[in-house]
Amino acid sequence: MRTPLLCPPPPTQELPALLLEATKELEAARQQVLKRIQIWKRQQQLAGNGALFEENLTPLQKRCEGLVEVHFQLHQQVMAAGAELGAELLSQLLERLNEVLSSLVRSSFLVEKQPPQVLKTQTKFQASVRFLLGPQLLQASPKPCMVRADMVTEKQARELAHSAYSSTLSESTGEIVHNVVALETNPGSGTCSANFKNVMLKKIKRCERKGSESVTEEKCAVLFSCTVGLSPAGTTMRLQVLSLPIVVIVHGNQDNNAKATVLWDNAFSEIERVPFVVAERVPWEKMCDTLNLKFMAEVQTTKGLLKEHYFFLAQKIFNDHSATPEDFQSRSVSWAQFNKEILPGRGFTFWQWFDGVLDLTKRCLKSYWSDRLIIGFISKQYVCKLLSTEPDGTFLLRFSDSEIGGVTIAHVIRGKD
Fold it and tell me: 143-161, pLDDT tens digit by residue?
């Protein structure tokens, strides 16, 4: 990242051009940092599906602090130049510099520890927010800044995003207890954060749903907000940040479908999006990557899914036993096929069946799977083909087609004749 070089005052005729160039470079450096913050947020979301995530925010904090320091120096030089720049250029530069600082401050307010993305009412949870520029800019005050957590609907989240998080929330969509926490600076670690340790969503106010949408497809979020006093100017600024999308449930039997909504949103949302818009249809290859990531993370194994497993899963979700593996590679899969449409001849969706496999493997079959002793994802027809040439006593474990979370043992027994 390039930072503007601030040198001793040049001849008067060169000063405006140099200050303009320095401001332009500062704006470019700011854009790089804001992009890096967005990438960090996206990686945090993918971690919800099991992806590796470097959550350490210290490098980002140092980059933000470095830019703010350059901003202050450049601001001083612009003010010192004053009349030499002329009123119009002076006003323009100050406006641009203020916008740089404002955007850095707002973007450096982050959710460091996300609330659970499937959140059951009347259940305690934890979360934390961090203000990267807090140690550098937060004004000393006898009263600490207080961060408030409120539940918002998807519609409210869109309105907040549309206003660039400058508007205030009119009404919370749920009642959260212990939802106000102090924003504190820790001189030892050089961090500024608010830790919500015993938060609980007491109740939720459901919003109007679209068409056939179920309650487990309804996405909310926690809005964290506070008003901070910034040094050295003593200005106040309102900071607001949304958590990742949350599906609120009231019964444990809703957990499975809620997890499907979260998995899909985490996997297929874009970095810059209107909350919480996500594609209704995605390439099958991307779906395979997502299922593999989830499987390995949930089962806690280093042995992922293989090509033949993907072939079986494609046959299942598309209900097509005539296509080749290559045919499936060019196909796309819809949200409805993933977790709305019931599989033919069954009483459950593809995701409900797959989640049952995850739970079974995690609880009972982890070591066997990790040692590659289970094929698991294989059709009954292919099992017969595999075992037809094997000696008596040969057996094979496959995940049940007809039962959620079941395993079927196929074995060879030939008669004496």
Answer: 889 999 999 999 999 999 8
Question: Which residue did the predictor score with more confidence, 161 or 136?
Answer: 136
* Torsional sign, CA 119, 120, 122, 125: negative
At the topology level of CATH, where does 281-411 sit?
A: Recoverin; domain 1 (1.10.238)
Question: Are 222 and 231 in contact, with CB atoms under 8 Å apart?
Answer: no
Instruction: Yes or no: say if 351 and 334 are a contact pair by the CB < 8 Å rule.
Output: no
In contact, 223 and 240? CB cutoff 8 Å = yes
Domain boundaries, the chain: 12-107, 111-251, 281-411
Given a cut of 80, is residue 5 above it in pLDDT? no
Range name among 50-59, 204-213, 269-278 with the lowest pLDDT average? 204-213
CA distance 61 to 15: 31
3-class DSSP state of 391? coil
Give the pLDDT confidence of 15-49 residue by residue, as tens digits.
889 999 999 999 999 999 999 999 999 999 999 99
Class of domain 111-251: mainly beta
Locus of tokens 């009642």: 175
Tokens of 357: 């496999």
Distance CA 55, CA 113 (A): 9
Alpha-carbon distance of 391 to 67, in angstroms, equals 71
More confident residue, 378 or 142: 378
Q: Which amino acid is located at 339 in the chain?
A: N
Q: Which residues pair with 332 in a beta bridge?
A: 283
pLDDT at 292: 98
Burial of 346 (C-beta count, 10 Å sphere; 0-12/13-18/19+): middle
Q: What angle do CA 261, 44, 105 make, to 5 degrees?
A: 120
Mean pLDDT calculated for residue range 282-303: 98
Cβ within 8 Å of residue 336, ≥6 positions away: 280
Q: What is the 3-state secondary structure (H, E, C) of 48-90?
A: CCCCCCCCCCHHHHHHHHHHHHHHHHHHHHHHHHHHHCCHHHH
Structure tokens belonging to residue 348: 């459950």
